[in-house]
Structures are given as C-alpha cells and as structure tokens.
C-alpha cells in the first residue's frame, strides 16, 4: 500500500492500557496511527515502543482539557494528512473523590466530566471536518457498562453497587453523544458507535478488572474497522448489543 493510501487513525489517551492496545491493533491492520497523549514523554515512549514492532505509529500531543492542545492536534492532522479515517475517543479519567450522590465531590465530578465528556466532545467537533473528508470514516467512543441507565437501574445487575456519579454520568453522556452524532451523520458514510470494554484490568481500576487488556480493547478495535455495511449509533461489547 502506498503511503498516501494508508488510512489515518487517532486514538486519544493511548500511551497505555486499552488505548495503546487499540493503537497497536489498528497499526497491525495497516493504518497509520496517531497516538494521542497529554504527557509528551510517555506518549513518545509508547509510540517508539510500538514502532519497534515495525508498525506505523506517531505521537501527537493531545490534552482534552486544553482547548489550544485540541486545536493544535486538529490543525496538525489537517496539515499532515488532510483527512482522518478513524477516531477512537479512548481518553478518560476517574477521581478518588467521586462516589454516590450524597458524598461525591463536586470538583471531582466536574473534573471527570471535563475530560470524559466535554473534552471528547471538543475533540470530536474539531476533527469532524477531517473525518468528513474520509471516504468511510469511523468514530468509536470508548464508554462503559457503568454508563448504561438500564443496567444502573437494575438492582440485580452484577455491578449495581458501583455508583460513581461522576464517572457513570460521564459515560452516559458519552453514550448520548454517540446517539446524537450518529443521527446527525446518518446520511454520510461515517459510522459512530460506543464500545463497552468490560471490566478490564487497567490503571483506571487499580488492575482489579477480570479481563486482559487485549480482551478489553477488542470491541473498540472491531468497531474502528467496521465494514461498509456495519452498524451506526449502537452500544456494543464482546457479548453483543448493550442497553442504553
């Protein structure tokens, strides 16, 4: 494949965990992947690590809470590639002061929403002009089962006791973004979906998860590489369609 024919992907929050695994898998599938990270040292190191495997990965500075950083990343993608074929919105945070409604720290909830929802929204808006220039773009929002209102309201759900107001609400909002954007882009070839990784052992949960990183990344990878007849506007995990 000629260099100019390669599909271009951006993965946010990609210097470790699920984001890094998605980056590796997309590069193995033949894409040129821009590894987004807010820490330049860690981002460069992660990109170099994957390049040692012979894969086409480049670091791009990206802090979702910094409007200048988001704008600069979008400008660089436009200048270097003139389009974007895949956007994986993976970056997300938790905060130890988050918790149930009665005790959740307001500042913690704001901080979580600022990154997980508002930052993702800002990045998606900034990159939409370049995604529209792709022949067949894909947007994947890495959500969580904790963002499902249906599951949160079910006292028998296996994670019913995990009531983290800020985090759960941020993922529910990300799911709403998915539905709205899929509707807005319904007449285009761009597909927008949300991925539920499942309870994966990452830094985010102190590695208490029961799935491997590879298992947790699998659904986001699948949605990023959907064929032309794939779905749009859905919420999926390895088990299939998830309830909103």
What topology does this entry show?
Blueprint: E1 8-11, H1 17-28, E2 32-37, H2 40-51, E3 57-61, H3 67-81, E4 86-89, H4 106-131, E5 138-142, H5 149-152, H6 165-184, E6 191-195, H7 213-224, E7 235-237, E8 240-241
Parallel strand pairs: 1-2, 1-4, 2-3, 4-5, 5-6, 6-7
Antiparallel strand pairs: 7-8
Helix pairs in contact: 1-7, 3-4, 4-6
Summary keywords:
Rossmann fold, 8-stranded mixed β-sheet, 7 helices, 41% helix, 14% strand
Low-confidence stretches: none
| Structural category | alpha/beta
Tally of helical segments: 7
Strand order of the largest sheet: 3-2-1-4-5-6-7-8
Order of helices and strands: EHEHEHEHEHHEHEE
At the first level of CATH, the class is: Alpha Beta
Mean pLDDT over the residues: 95
User: What is the CATH architecture annotation?
Assistant: 3-Layer(aba) Sandwich
Principal-axes shape call: globular
Quick one: CATH superfamily?
NAD(P)-binding Rossmann-like Domain
Helix content: 40-55%
Total number of strands = 8
Which value, in Å, is the CA radius of gyration?
17 Å
Kindly identify the CATH topology: Rossmann fold
> Between the first and last Cα atoms, what is the distance in angstroms?
39 Å
Largest sheet: 8 strands, mixed
What proportion of the residues form beta strands (DSSP E)?
Answer: 5-15%
Instruction: Give the total of domains.
Output: 1
């Amino acid at each position: 494949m000629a260099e100019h024919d390669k599909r271009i992907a951006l993965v946010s929050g990609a210097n470790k965990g699920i984001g890094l695994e998605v980056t590796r898998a997309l590069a193995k599938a033949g894409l040129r992947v821009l590894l987004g990270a807010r820490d330049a040292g860690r981002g460069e190191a992660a990109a170099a690590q994957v390049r040692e495997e012979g894969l086409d990965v480049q670091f791009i500075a990206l802090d979702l809470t910094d409007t200048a950083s988001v704008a600069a990343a979008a400008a660089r993608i436009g200048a270097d590639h003139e389009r974007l074929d895949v956007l994986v919105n993976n970056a997300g945070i938790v905060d130890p002061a988050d918790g149930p409604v009665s005790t959740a720290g307001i500042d913690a909830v704001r901080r979580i929403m600022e990154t997980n929802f508002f930052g993702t929204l800002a990045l998606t808006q900034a990159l939409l002009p370049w995604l529209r220039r792709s022949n067949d773009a894909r947007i994947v929002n890495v959500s969580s089962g904790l963002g499902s209102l249906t599951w949160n309201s079910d006292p028998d759900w296996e994670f019913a006791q995990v009531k983290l107001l800020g985090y759960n609400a941020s993922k529910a909002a990300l799911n709403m973004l998915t539905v709205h954007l899929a509707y807005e882009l319904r007449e285009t070839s761009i597909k927008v979906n949300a991925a539920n990784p499942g309870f994966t052992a990452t830094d985010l949960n102190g590695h208490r998860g029961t799935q491997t990183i590879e298992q947790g990344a699998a659904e986001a990878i699948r949605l990023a590489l959907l064929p032309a007849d794939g779905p749009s506007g859905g919420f999926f995990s390895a088990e299939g369609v998830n309830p909103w």
